[in-house]
């Protein structure tokens, strides 16, 4: 199942609406996300993200509720930080 996950915009890079991106926090896991489809998004806003693309701006209450439901369902397993690379011998 494909889902959009809510996250909080931490910062934004770029002025061109077609190239704008930002760092988005998903309960502490920070990912780079395209903000092309949400030109109105600003730092501090919550956005719904699907495969690295923010698709809409949502309010904080809705974001927290959606995140809680996804966590309860176990649908956030792929959102974990990548494991550290093993140190070569």
Characterize the structure shown.
The protein has 89 residues and is α+β, with helices and mostly antiparallel strands. It has a single domain, classed as SH3 type barrels, CATH 2.30.30.140. It is 16% helix and 36% strand. It has one helix spanning 60-73; strands spanning 5-13, 21-26, 29-34, 46-50, 53-58. It has a five-stranded antiparallel sheet. It is globular, with a radius of gyration of 14 Å. Mean pLDDT is 84; it is low at 81-89.
Q: Summary?
A:
The protein has 89 residues and is an alpha+beta fold.
Relative helix content:
10-25%
Lateral arrangement of strands in the main beta sheet: 3-2-1-4-5
Q: Write down the Rg.
A: 14 Å
How confident is the prediction overall: mean pLDDT?
A: 84
β-strand number: 5
Helices and strands, with pairings:
Elements lengths: L4 E9 L7 E6 L2 E6 L11 E5 L2 E6 L1 H14 L16
Antiparallel strand pairs: 1-2, 1-4, 2-3, 4-5
How would you describe this structure in keywords?
1 helix; five-stranded antiparallel β-sheet; alpha+beta; globular; SH3 type barrels; 89 residues
